[in-house]
Amino acid sequence: MTWTAPPFERGQELGALGAVDERRMLEGWLRRHRETLLAKCAGLDADQLARAAVEPSGLTLLGLVRHMAEVERFWFRRSFAREAVGPVFTGPGDGDEGLAGVDPAHAERDFGRFLAEVEACDAAAAGHGLDETFESTTGVPLSLRFVYTLMIQEYARHNGHADLLRERTDGATGD
Q: Per residue in 140-149, is it b (16+ CB within 10 Å) or e — as a string?
């Protein structure tokens, strides 16, 4: 039997983010975007997740899941927390930060890696102030606040792609 992305229910309503402190707001919006990507994948089987549905692009929902795990790891763990961890998916045959090299046979594993990476990234940021800085690979000082904002932007952009991919895959639309 082919693996299917599990159903997904959102945790927090958007209205709950309207009057909270900055940290909770950034964490909440990031969580919301992570949940949106998972919701766009819910109920699709591995072949559907790995299908490039918006020609001529080779972009897939599974590739987006892999990419976001890669990007989260890079910014939260490798850059901010300075953890000595390698890439999640990028390898010799994949120069696109997880977007390329998708295989439906590995969809369940890839989703598991994404979820584990989200947990590890949350742990890497926990207990650190938003004003805490690190030096980027280009020598520019950046803050944890920057990382949260960057990740929210990255998910927002790719969740737009996920909307199109999902609609072209099975006609499903909406948040």
A: eebbbbbbbe
Residue 113: HSE in the Cβ half-sphere, 13 Å Cα cutoff: 22
pLDDT along the chain (175 residues), means of 10: 83 74 93 95 96 92 96 96 90 67 94 97 98 95 98 96 95 83
- Give domain 20-170's CATH architecture: Up-down Bundle (1.20)
Q: Strand (E) positions, the chain? A: 133-135, 141-143
Give Cα separations from 115 to 42, 122, 123, 129, 169 (angstroms).
Answer: 14, 11, 13, 24, 23
CA–CA gap between residue 96 and residue 111 (Å, rounded): 18
Confidence (pTM): 0.92
What is the C-alpha separation between 175 and 172, in angstroms, rounded? 10
Q: What does the domain layout of the chain look like in residue ranges?
A: 20-170
Tokens representing 164 are 């199109």
